[in-house]
Design brief:
37% strand, mainly beta, 2 domains, 397 residues, five-stranded antiparallel sheet, six-stranded mixed sheet, globular
Length: 397
């Protein structure tokens, strides 16, 4: 039985080191003595696919209340104290910085990494080398970059830890923005803001039995000069997993020829990135492949996907393995002010689907497209099997 690797994690948290730590008076705020060092250990058992599933890692959650307690501030203070990460040039330069809105709080918490897990002697205050608070990492847990900065990137960039909260710097009391980003309330953000994605280089450098460790670091210097450190140590063990769909399909029964599938959907202009999802599992009967086999075939290049906007073949510029943004006239555009509609197809161990959504913008430009209809096409090719996916989408209120 062929084995595939994909994300599976069990997370446990514990304080492994602490000094001068006073009792917490409530669940939201604590008073901690100066020169405090606290380590939160996050053991994670991870199994991952050598294909696209690597990009969509499992999520490990660290309790924000424990982090706040270690720093001696409240969870809400911690949210604003981290500010935001300026990663505009991170892809090219590998350098990122933090920015703060001092109208929310004058407390600043630095975010970085303990290079090579050397804690106090190896601190690096680059808040990210990925897309959010977090880092691409070498096998020994040192900071590295997914860019030309790594001379031996194919051999050196093994895995990443990345914060999965995209609400940093936003207003916790703005109900409209909370809804736009998929949060039910302020407490929903505060309880989940230290959820991390753990993933791997999709070229498959990691193997069953490998173990990795990396330590993310937060520092708050209080008004008296006391330094409060929290070290979040991630211990990752790679284990194996059998494809949950193993034995369900027979490659000898793959259907040859050209197949046309048409999906007609309506998406609300107000739904933003939530949008709608189209289930594509029916295509597995044609391909006679499991979701993980499809993912691996896409990575290996034996299965290809091509998007078409306004009849022209275009490169992927959205999420998933194939997808694109369109403007109000149905022409290709990128994510941003001119974007109206996105259609993107993805596959992982649980889902094979197309996500259709509108651009979430404060100026509500998408509302000008209400009543308009758009067409978009994707073509999947595997050996002599060709599947045309035709999407007809209408934007409603």
């Amino acid at each position: 039985m062929k084995k595939y690797l994909f994300i599976l994690a069990a997370v446990a948290l514990c304080f492994t080191a602490c000094k001068k730590n006073n009792d917490n008076k409530d669940n939201n705020k604590s008073t901690v003595g100066q020169d405090t060092e606290i380590t939160i250990n996050v053991p994670v058992s991870v199994v991952h696919n050598v294909g696209d599933v690597n990009w969509y890692a499992n999520y490990a959650t660290v309790d924000p209340a424990q982090v706040a307690k270690g720093l001696g501030i409240s969870t809400e203070e911690l949210f604003y104290a981290l500010g935001t990460v300026n990663n505009e040039d991170t892809w090219q330069t590998g350098i990122s910085s933090q920015e703060w809105d001092d109208t929310k709080t004058t407390i600043h918490v630095q975010y970085g990494i303990a290079n090579k897990n050397d804690t106090m002697n190896g601190l690096d205050w680059t808040p990210c080398t990925s897309n959010n608070f977090g880092h691409w990492l070498t096998a020994n847990g040192s900071k590295t970059y997914w860019s030309e900065l790594s001379e031996d990137a194919s051999e050196n960039v093994y895995w990443y830890i990345e914060n999965a909260c995209w609400y940093w710097g936003k207003d916790l009391d703005d109900s409209a923005t909370l809804e736009e980003y998929g949060y039910e309330s302020k407490s929903d953000v505060l309880e989940n803001m230290f959820t991390y994605a753990i993933g791997f280089n999709p070229t498959g450098l990691t193997n069953e039995g490998d173990s990795y460790k990396a330590t993310e670091v937060l520092l708050y210097t209080d008004e008296e000069g006391g330094e409060h450190y929290v070290f979040i140590e991630f211990d990752v063990d790679i284990t194996s997993f059998v494809d949950p769909e193993a034995g369900k399909y027979d490659s000898s029964k793959r259907q040859s020829g050209t197949f046309n599938k048409t999906y007609t959907e309506t998406v609300s202009a107000a739904s933003g990135y939530t949008g709608v999802y189209v289930d594509l599992t029916e295509l597995q009967d044609i391909l006679q492949m499991t979701k993980l086999e499809i993912s691996s075939a896409l990575t290996e290049g034996t299965l290809t996907a091509q998007g078409y906007v306004a009849g022209e073949a275009v490169d992927n510029n959205a999420g998933g393995f194939c997808g694109n943004w369109m403007d109000i006239d149905g022409n290709l555009t990128g994510w941003g002010a001119s974007a109206i509609l996105c259609v993107e197809t993805s596959v992982d161990s649980d889902n094979f689907q197309t996500h259709i959504c509108t651009y979430a913008d404060a100026d509500n430009v998408v509302s000008t497209a209400i009543g308009k209809s758009y067409t978009y096409k994707q073509v999947l090719t595997y050996l002599d099997t060709i599947i045309n996916l035709n999407f007809n989408v209408t934007i409603a209120e």
